[in-house]
Each structure stands twice: as structure tokens, then as C-alpha cells.
Amino acid sequence: MLQELGIRYAAYSLKAEYFHFAEQILFEVLATWLGSDFTKEVEFAWKMVSGFMVATMLAGFVCSKCWLKLQTALRKAQLLVKQRRAPGWLLFLPDEQDAF
Q: 61-74: buried (b, 16+ CB within 10 Å) or exposed (e) per residue?
């Protein structure tokens, strides 16, 4: 579910650093909200949980961004092939339905 959330965020054109900003804001809110109950142990526990969540979402985010770039490059290459303006090695690219 967290990877899927990261994939969805990639479609919104977010940047990877936003995940870390959100994590920082979470800790500021927790520290304010919990006050003196925000002990080092509580902070450590939240860091473990949020670190896992951010890493998992980032994995989906980065994977999705790479996939989108690959699809865009493939479409551009196929357009060049159709226009007969492609270098010779591009003439061997598979059709879009066979590519993935």
C-alpha cells in the first residue's frame, strides 16, 4: 500500500525531497503535540516507523518515475522510427504493445 502511495505521488509531479520534508514536519507536530511526553524513546520509535514508511513510499515513487521516463523515451524513439529519422539501431525497437 505504501509503494502504491509513492507511485500515485509520482503521477502528481512531486519531488523526492518532499517526502523528507513531510517527515520533518511530522516530528515538529509530534514534539509540539506531545510536549514533555515526546521522550527520546518515543522519538526513536517514530523515527523507525516514519523511516520505514518514507523508504517504502520512495521506492514506489522512484520506480514509477523511472517507468514514466522509460515510456516517454520509447514513444519518442518509436516516433523517430516512424518518421524514418532514427539511427539504424533504433530500427530494431519492438512495437509498443510488444515492448513491455
A: beebbeeeeeeeee
Got the DSSP string for 22-73?
HHHHHHHHHHHHHGGG--HHHHHHHHHHHHHHHHHHHHHHHHHHHHHHHHHH
User: Exposure string (b/e) for 35-45, b if CB count within 10 Å is 16 or more?
Assistant: eeeeeeeeeee
Domain spans, the chain? 2-99
- Among 33, 41, 9, 38, smallest CA distance to 22 is for 9
Give 1-55 pLDDT, tens digit per residue. Answer: 888 878 787 778 788 888 889 889 999 999 999 999 999 999 999 999 999 998 9
CB count, 10 Å around CB of 78? 17
**pLDDT of 44-56, one tens digit each?**
999 999 999 989 9
